Amino acid sequence: MLFKKAIPGFLKTLGFYVPLNCPLCGGAPADGTPNMFCKNCLERLPFIRNPVCPGCGGELYGILDVCPDCLHAEKKFPWKRAAALFKMDGMAKEVIYQYKYRNMPELARPLGRLAAGVMEQARIRPDLIVPTPLHWFRHLQRGYNQAALLCHEIGRETAIPVRNLLRRTKWTKQQARLDRKQRIQNLHQAFSIIDSTNCKDRCILLVDDVMTTGSTLSAAAETLLASGAAEVDVLVLARRQRD
Ligand SMILES: [Zn+2]
Ligand SMILES: [Zn+2]
C-alpha cells in the first residue's frame, strides 16, 4: 500500500501526471477511463441539480427562474450566467481543500471533465476560457493556480482556447470575513487586464474554484467587461450561499 502511494508521489515530484485510479480513494474510475472519480466517490459528491439560478448558480426550488437571494440583491452580478458543480458541503469541501492546499493538482483532471459536462448542460459556449488569477505571491506559495489548471482541463475537453487575460494586482484579504462595503474596498482595482486585444468582443467564461459572496468574481468580470468583453459567464467548482 505504501509502495503504491510512494511511486505516484515520486513521479509527481518529477512533474508527471500519473493516470491514477480514483484520485480520492484509489478505486476503479466510474466510467472506466483514467483520471475519473470512482462510483462511490461520485455518489458522495453534492452535485448541484437542475434547474439552477443563472445569477448565482445555486439550485432553484420555487417557481421563479431566479433564486430569492438574486432577486432581492442590491446589486446584480455582472455576468450573464453562473454555473457551479457542487454545493460547498461535505465531500466537496474535502475535495477542494485537497485540490487547493494539499498539493493535489492531479484533481484538476476529473474536476475539469465534470466541469466541462456542466458547461454543456448549461449550454455555455464561450469563445475563450479565462482563469481567475492568483496574486503572484500566493501562486508562488502554492506552486500552481488551481483555476488555471482547471481551465486547462476544460479547454482540453471542449477544444475552447484558454487565455490568461487578467492579472491580480492587489493582495486581497479573505473576502468571507468582511462586510459588503469592506469587500468592495478590498477588491477595488484588484484585477487588471493583460491582453485587451483578445478580450474585446469575446464571450468569456471566467473560472474559479469557489464562489463565496461572488465579489471576487464580480471584480474580475467587471474588469473583462470594462475591457470590451461582449459577455461574461462564470463557472466554479463549488458555491456557498450568499450572505
Ligand atoms: Zn473514489
Ligand atoms: Zn441566485
List the helices and strands and how they pair.
Layout: H1 2-13, H2 39-44, H3 68-72, E1 82-87, H4 90-101, H5 108-121, E2 128-131, H6 136-142, H7 146-158, E3 166-168, H8 180-187, E4 191-193, H9 196-199, E5 203-211, H10 215-226, E6 231-239
Helix pairs in contact: 5-7
The protein binds zinc ion (2 copies).
Description:
- This protein has 243 residues and is α/β, with parallel strands linked by helices.
- It has one domain: Rossmann fold (3-Layer(aba) Sandwich).
- Helices cover 38% and strands 14% of the residues.
- It contains ten helices and six strands, in the order αααβααβααβαβαβαβ.
- The chain has helices at 2-13, 39-44, 68-72, 90-101, 108-121, 136-142, 146-158, 180-187, 196-199, 215-226; strands at residues 82-87, 128-131, 166-168, 191-193, 203-211, 231-239.
- The longest helix has 14 residues, at 108-121.
- It is globular, with a radius of gyration of 18 Å.
- Bound molecules: zinc ion (2 copies).
- Residues 53, 55-56, 58, 66-67, 69-70 line the site of one zinc ion.
How many domains? The number is 1
Strand order of the largest sheet: 1-6-5-2
Number of strands: 6
- CATH architectural label: 3-Layer(aba) Sandwich
**What ligands are attached or bound here?**
zinc ion
| Beta-strand percent range | 5-15%
Shape: globular
The overall average pLDDT, rounded, is: 87
Helical residues, percent: 25-40%
